[in-house]
Amino acid sequence: MDDYRIEDHPDLQDAGWARNAVRRAEREARLGRVRRWPRLRRRRFWGGLAIAVAAVVLAWAVFETQSDSPAGQRAVDLDEPFAGTAAASWADGEAGVVVPEPRQVGTFPADQVAQAYAQVRQAVVTARLDRRVVVEHDLEPFFGLFAPDLRDSLRVLFDGRNDGEAALVVTRVDKDSRLAEVAPKVRGEMAAEAGPGGELVVRTDYTFAYAFTPDRPEAVRGPMDVVALSRFQVRYAVRTGDPGVAGLWADASTGSLHSIACSTAKRGYLAPAFTEPSLPPGLDFDLGAPSSPADGCPD
After folding, report:
1. How far is Cα 60 from Cα 161, in angstroms, rounded to an integer?
2. Domain range summary for the chain, segments of one domain joined by +
3. Per-residue 3-state assignment (H helix, E strand, C coil) for the chain
4. pLDDT per 10-residue tile (average), the chain, 299 residues
5. By the 8 A CB rule, do 250 and 146 touch?
């Protein structure tokens, strides 16, 4: 998988706040490239984490509802909220975070690749599926998975001043929304490669579908009102060096959300579309189509 440049997406060109976020990310990226990370100060974390806040309000066309009605709507079974959606066939929870068969990558033997896969899998599961993080907003289980220098920088990221950017690192459900008891649906992949700085790199690309329980079920217009989706591509690296640098790093993260509450997403939190009923109901989506603002989120 290639690096993503979300700032080049045409849907971002007219969004003022998006442009500012991209410029900030690019400016920080120029200060420190991935190969220089072992020598960076902790405050230079942003040099490696090239992210764009604007991604959270893009409509990502990877989901489609299935319905016999012209409007694309159907009744919602709150016991099986994914029924009638493309996510119904995806794996449940952690089972969807699949680790490939480890093979030698460059000079890295298969057993070292297997260890990296295990570390990255735990990071993905903790960031997107662990209810301590996602629901309770307890970030310590996530912080503890990374190298000490990055761990300290992550704590700064989550100090409450950067919630829009923090949403690309972990998923946090808005306190006013309630996840359904069913496990989120997951699909995606990871792959290892040798990084230019001599480190072992694992790239991930996973999609998560979260079902929510509405306070007023009678107001729900269809499955897309209760199911919110997120996709994240993250580049991880396993580094060696002094005690502060050695361990797992998350170097770059891009992502997009779909079928969500737009104003909540701009604050860095996840909430379903039924919390903002002004969004158009019953939208159909082409799994192969490019991203577009079709979900009704304003630019």
Report:
1. 26
2. 6-275
3. CCCCCHHHCHHHCCCHHHHHHHHHHHHHHHHCCHHHHHHCCHHHHHHCCECCHHHHHCECCCCCECCCCCCCCCCCCCCCCCCCEHHHHCEEHHHHCCCCCCCCECCECHHHHHHHHHHHHHHHHHHHCCHHHHCCCCCHHHHCCCCHHHHHHHHHHCCCCCHHHHCCCCCCECCCCCECCCCCEEEEEEEEEECCCCCEEEEEEEEEEEEECCCCHHHCCCHHHHEEEEEEEEEEEEECCCCCCCEEEEEEEEEEEECECHHHHHCCCECEHHHCCCCCCCCCCCCCCCCCCCCCCCC
4. 41 42 38 30 36 34 36 67 90 96 96 98 98 96 95 90 87 95 96 92 96 85 86 94 93 85 90 74 43 46
5. yes
d(CA 91, CA 155): 31
Q: Which residue in the block uniquely carries the two structure tokens 């580094």?
A: 239
Q: Which two tokens stand for residue 180?
A: 């359904």
